[in-house]
Amino acid sequence: MLKSNHKTFVSTTFIIANSDEAKEISSTPPAALSGKYKLLELRNVDDAMLSWLYTFLADRAYDPDFIAEQRLTANAQDGPWLFLVPPDLLQLMDKLTKPDLIELAKQCTEMPLPEFESWNSKALVNMLSQLSAFSKQSLAENKGVILVVDVTSATEEQALDYKVRQLSLIGDDHLENDRFEKALETYKAAWDLLPEPEEECTAASSILTSLGNAKFHLGHFQEAIKDLSRALELADQSDAPFLLLRLGQCFYECGDHEQATEELSIACIAAGTILFENDDPKYLEFLLSNRSELARAQKSKWNDASIRLDLALEEFPEALSNRIRKLCIEANRLSAKGNYPPALEKLWTAFDLVHEPKDEHLTATWIITLIGDINYLNEDFEAGRDNLSTGMNLPGALGNPFSHLRLGQCEFELGDMARAGDELARAYISGGTEIFESENPKYLEFLSSILKPPAGQDRL
User: Along the 460 residues of the chain, how does pLDDT read in single tens digits?
Assistant: First the structure.
């Protein structure tokens, strides 16, 4: 079973050379390299680990493929793999002092990162010192540094892990540049490397997703549905919206509009209309044209059973349910009179009464939604955004039109029009224009400016 896409033990060689020398390096026997180039040989320092070091030094978000994108060789089947170390990383390494090296090693070992699990602080300081000195030498010679990764000394499983990752990244590059046949060919090669049963490998879900995505772009919709459906069974929750989007698009292209509506609607509720931005607008237009059916389908699923307080409170003992209910009723009465601070105090007390883990209880969802509602009414839009965003991670909130409405209104008032449009669109898709009836008309007017009306209508 493949464990982690990045926890790989490899032999690595850093070579002072420019990118135009990569072809010669890749064809030179390893034993002969030292006679032609200045080398630094290390263990367990691959492109993923360098990406982490860049993250720490440049104070930027982690991109595990940052160094991999500097690939200088195209063959990922057997290696070795050559990558150009970014010049700014060399400059950052050049500036490190001894205290900096110690602090950087401390950061690396304190974080639960698979790339650093086999290292202790002393070994890291030593490795970083060597990299820093090597960077100084390359800059003094006004030359670059090429990283050569070789997995021949790794175990079979570790080598396989690295090969699959590199093939997947090359496939991604083909896909991003519209070389769909090449992408499909590369993803198939990655899949063929997986040991049976393939579905038990960590990489299976991502490769199936990539296969389905490539087949979608090639118009092989029935085949894509098979791969995407298998990927959905294995995927993390965070990957589900994209998979549902692609599935819905494939069903649409196959003429199964009922199934397309179901898949696209769940994708939209989970991730918003922003999910559709980079695709043909016909898919979102189709979904909006079927909004009435969608609203009816979502009503029993999201609105009736999930967010009603009486039903939610059934999960608790009667005494606790009565106490929470009383606090919420009192909060509503205070809120109706404009007494927002004491109303919030009552609701937070009720929220604290909900058992941990709170993300398993519908009651917590209901209460945090009421809190966000009062934040909005009290024009504390920042608190409303924060509380309602937190509530979206609780059961039953995602897809509830009122929750999305209030969150969209808060984002609107804070000036984040992209987020506002996304949330208000979700409110509309699940609840129709009815959800806007008692609200300031500016919100529906704003939504009308960014969404096309359903087919055959002149307005939302």
Answer: 333 344 456 778 999 999 999 988 888 887 888 888 999 998 888 888 888 888 888 887 777 778 888 888 755 567 788 999 999 999 999 999 999 999 888 888 887 777 777 788 888 899 999 999 999 999 999 999 999 988 777 778 778 888 888 889 889 989 989 999 999 999 999 999 998 888 888 889 999 999 999 999 999 999 999 999 999 888 776 777 889 899 999 999 999 998 898 788 777 766 777 788 888 989 988 887 776 555 444 443 333 333 345 545 656 777 787 788 778 877 877 887 788 999 999 999 999 988 888 888 888 888 999 999 999 999 999 999 999 999 998 887 887 888 999 999 999 999 999 999 999 988 888 778 888 888 899 999 999 888 877 666 777 7
Structure tokens of 154? 């790794």
**Strand 81-84's sheet: what is its strand order?**
39-43, 11-16, 145-150, 81-84
Terminal Cα-to-Cα distance of the chain (whole angstroms): 51
Q: Which of the 8 DSSP states describes residue 71? A: B
Place of tokens 């607008």: 281
Residue type, 5: N
Q: If you search the block for the tokens 């934040």, which residue do you land on?
A: 375
Read off the DSSP letter of residue 86.
Answer: P
DSSP 302: I
Contact criterion met (CB below 8 Å) for 199 and 229: no
Domains of the chain: 11-155 (3.40.1760), 160-304 (1.25.40.10), 305-450 (1.25.40.10)
CA distances from 309 to 327, 334, 455, 457 (A): 12, 18, 37, 36
